[in-house]
């Protein structure tokens, strides 16, 4: 198992990330659940989402509706064997499939 260290995300950085996520998801319905969009934004700020074993998240989400929380870590998992887990923030993702077949997606970093 990979070792981990807890770090904090500054409030100003959370705000900047949330502004970008909101801009990407606002007033739009999507053909797919937009997890990749959120992860790409996190990666622009040097973060990623991880699994319970502290490795990069690898999976899929599906269903007509749902809500998931993802653990955030500094995006340097390939460079060191010490994952820096963000202790004061998580990615929150909610989705609902409309009658049209498209998804309404809400996401933010808490």
Provide a compact summary of the structure.
The protein has one domain. With 110 residues, the chain is of the alpha+beta class.
Topology of helices and strands:
Elements: E1 3-7, H1 11-25, H2 35-44, E2 47-50, E3 65-74, E4 82-97, E5 103-109
What does this structure look like?
By secondary structure, the chain is α+β, with helices and mostly antiparallel strands. It has one domain (3-109). The chain has two helices and five strands. Strand 3 (65-74) and strand 4 (82-97) form a beta hairpin. The longest helix has 15 residues, at 11-25. It starts with a strand and ends with a strand. The mean pLDDT is 92.
Q: Helical content, roughly?
A: 10-25%
Structural class: alpha+beta
What's the Cα radius of gyration?
14 Å
Order of helices and strands: EHHEEEE
Strand content: 35-45%
Shape call: globular
Domains (count): 1
Give the termini separation: 27 Å
Spans where pLDDT lies below 50 across 5 or more residues: none
Mean model confidence by pLDDT: 92
The number of helical segments is: 2
Number of strands: 5
Characterize the largest beta sheet: strand count, sense, and whether it forms a barrel: 5 strands, mixed
What are the main properties of this structure?
5-stranded mixed sheet; 23% helix; 110 residues; alpha+beta; single chain
């Amino acid at each position: 198992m990979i070792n981990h260290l807890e770090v904090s995300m500054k409030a100003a950085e959370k705000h900047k990330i949330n502004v970008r996520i909101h801009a990407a998801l606002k007033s739009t319905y999507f053909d797919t659940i937009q997890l990749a969009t959120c992860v790409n934004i996190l990666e622009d700020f040097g973060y990623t989402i991880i699994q319970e074993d502290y490795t990069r998240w690898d999976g899929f989400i599906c269903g007509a509706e749902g809500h998931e929380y993802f653990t955030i870590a500094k995006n340097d998992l390939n460079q060191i064997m010490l994952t820096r887990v963000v202790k004061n923030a998580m990615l929150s993702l909610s989705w609902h499939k409309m009658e049209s077949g498209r998804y309404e997606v809400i996401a933010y970093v808490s």
